[in-house]
Amino acid sequence: MRFIFKTSYDQDIRLARHSGYVFWYGLLLAALSVAPFVLPVYWSSLITMTMIYGIVGLGLMLLSGFTGLFSIGHAAFMGVGAYMQGVLTAQGWPFPFALAASMVSSAAVGAVVGLPALRVRGLYLAIATLAFAFIVQEVIVRWESVTGGNRGMAVGMINLFGWKTGSPIVFYYICFALTVLTTLGVLNLLRSPTGRAFVAIRDSEVSAQSMGVTLAYYKTLSFAVSASLAGLGGALSAHMLRFITPDQFGIVQSIDLLLIVMIGGLGSIHGAFFGALFLILTPQVIALSKDYLPPAIGQTVGLQSVLYGLVLIAFVLFEPTGIYGRWVKIRTWFELAPLYRKNLLKRQRRFQKTERLT
Amino acid sequence: MSTPPLLSVENLSVRFGGITAVSNISFDVRRREVFTLIGPNGAGKTTVLNIISRIYQQTAGNINFDGYCITGMKPDAVAGLGIARTFQNIELFEHATVLQNLLIGRHTRRQGNFWQHLFFTPSVREAERAAREKVEEVIEFLDLQHYRDLVIAGLPYGIRKVVELARALCIEPRLLLLDEPSSGLNPEETNDLAFWIDDIREELGIAILMVEHDMSLVSRVSDRVLAMNYGEFVALGSPDDVKVHPGVIEAYLGKGNDISLLRRHLP
Questions:
Q1: How far is CA A326 from the centre of its chain?
Q2: What residue segments make up the domains of chain A, in order of their start?
Q3: Which domains does chain B have, with CATH numbers?
Q4: Which of A29-33, A208-212, A341-345 is predicted least confidently?
Q5: pTM for this structure?
Q6: Assembly ipTM
Q7: Looking at chain A, which residue has its C-alpha nearest residue B80?
Q8: What is the interface size between A and B, counted as CB pairs within 8 Å?
Q9: How does pLDDT run across B220-253, given as a tens digit for each residue?
Q10: At what angle do helices A41-60 and A215-241 cross, to 10 degrees?
């Protein structure tokens, strides 16, 4: 059990709260840096995919988990990023510039989509973002001269100022570096006044306003940042997949992204990565277990979708705080053993809460 | 009076559809004054507070705060001018700790833009330390040390009320709007509140406009009291004068002959 004695304000500002953070995250980073040389190519490509979805999940987490605005159209931002990257790479733009342009264009689109968020909330906002996602998908399908329409579009190799590479190891390290940078960026935002304003909007809009938070600015900002991260993820996945089609960025993808934040645990950075890990690993586990299951179940076509659905329902019912919430409980159990009480982290009953003005 | 009042409300009226919630109310709050609005339920007291903090729009009338006309402003703009408020049904950020709630109170005094926050530049770090220092002063002022790192959702009602007051003080306001600060508090906590209200005025020099039902608290801390009923002006004066004003007694208890109507006529 660890006791932390606070002796300076910096202890609350620092990202690494105690030496345990430094040790475990250092270990994780070290393991990830040597992974492509140790693991088989297929497994390191799964890690790359997890990192890409982790970045997109991070964006959606900032919007849904920290600002309280739900979007069922986030795949559209990925699509904007992916196609932008594809088009610019074809025109010979160097990779970093193309990536930046993809992020900026996604952010711009995100800011526009954020406009309804100034008027509608909750389910209505979700429907508005869904409608927008259909519009983007339709534009990609119809704008054949640029996007290739339903036939799809091949994405060129990564162009690092003339040096073209298709090496999965280089790509792994690019994704790794971007994952670390974006995570640090989001963590920085969350410990600064900007992030606190996001959280204030999530918990009580009327009160956030009375504290001087300009709702329009911060909601738009949250949408823009979230969309730019989704665009970054989309651009990376375009290079990963080498071939993009409009249906990759449809509603199914959007729901997958929602799964990431819901199953990972709303309102936690860990949750975005736990969720991404779940999303990438589950199909692998299903594929591996197919041989051991009775053929009637193992060979069923919709096995994966059914399993996803069941897991989502189970999480909403039994563990609304997601994998991260479960992880915190397990960690607390070990920290406090044998003093852990069953209801230690139980959520507050609804009837004990006070009424709200709006 | 030599100095102009801090807040002056002139001929304020609000209608929601056919209902006139506030009609033609005028008053002003002087610097370092505790000004209380009283009246039966539904008298329009909270509505007046909500208009001053710009959550509602007035139908007619004018509000001036320290030389600025605030009738066209947004809620976040008046917070920037130095008007802080608390809510009748506590509106804290439930899933955050006490400390994080209080830090949001420093939002109007934030430094740096989005990019500086994204990279957490040294100047942002320095501003964070300064904000924390200010927050610690408020924590000390209201004795919240024990609760600093606890999440709001797990705190008892009385403490939440104090945290909300603390968050409002973190704005470093010039005018504090308190909406029924003593509702739901036990006598001991109400007693603490009375001391704090005195301290806020004396030590911090902040004017307070509050809505309150507890008459013993009102008489103890207020300089002037405005009584309202059905959105209309009833009386204005010192707490003792207002308490014995016939209009106020009528608003709370009804007219004398009403009682005789209720009395059973014995043969």
A1: 19
A2: 38-293
A3: 1-82+173-267 (3.40.50.300), 97-172 (no CATH)
A4: A341-345
A5: 0.88
A6: 0.87
A7: A212
A8: 119
A9: 999 999 999 988 899 999 999 988 888 888 888 8
A10: 160
